[in-house]
Amino acid sequence: MSAQVTVGVSLKMYFGHHEALDWCARVAGRVRQHPGVMSGAVRFFVIPTYLQIGPALDAFRDTPVLVGAQDVSPYECGPYTGEVAAAELVEVGARIAEIGHAERRRLFGETDAIIAAKAAATLRHGATPVLCVGETQPQTPTDSATTTVAQLQACLAGVPDGAVIIAYEPVWAIGAPHPAPADHITTVTTGLSAAIASDPARIGSVVIYGGSAGPGLLTRLGASVDGVFLGRFAHDPDALVSVLDEASVLASARQGLRSSGEVHA
Predict the structure, then answer these.
(1) GO molecular function of the protein, one example (predicted)?
(2) pLDDT in tens, 24-33
(3) Where are the domains of the chain?
């Protein structure tokens, strides 16, 4: 378990361009006053649309906030019309690439092999994949853990060494009124954490939860996750700041445990 807590936001395609710029400016103003984020105790990343990446980088300049992309090409630069290469994303300043979201799987037919190729391209160019995994239908917590660990292993097959952010997002909870039950999340994220802890190629990786995540969830989950991946609940900057506050409290508690020797990375 890392003492640092990770909070991410994907804007998907909800905002128009100027609306997204306004959101970034409002959030950046709050972040600059947030000790947890500014100290690095909370790792905060924002994933807008491709066209919003440049302005987001400008908005979050002089902060530790990481800006990323909602997808990345599995190919290197070349004759691939409509694709955006990892090399170019890193060149402009993106440090995160979201890969394998359930919507990409469902709407665009992405397979585990395609996702693995995208993860490989991302790591080759020094960025961090946010690798989304999750079962499509409700299962028992134990069965869900088995399913997602197998999915994770398939999506990392042949991928170069490097840390990843694993976003556990049960598909049936995405867009739902409430996240998955806390005991369900804990069982699955514990299984995912054990899987990456046993893989020397993934040193430094973390497991966060997405799928209707919002304020209050981190407090309920405590030590069972390394953070949360937010969607529509982060559209309200005040709600987002409340999650960052929760993350700061959790990071402080983890640091205290590490200092006392009770928690090991």
Answers:
(1) triose-phosphate isomerase activity
(2) 999 999 999 9
(3) 5-259
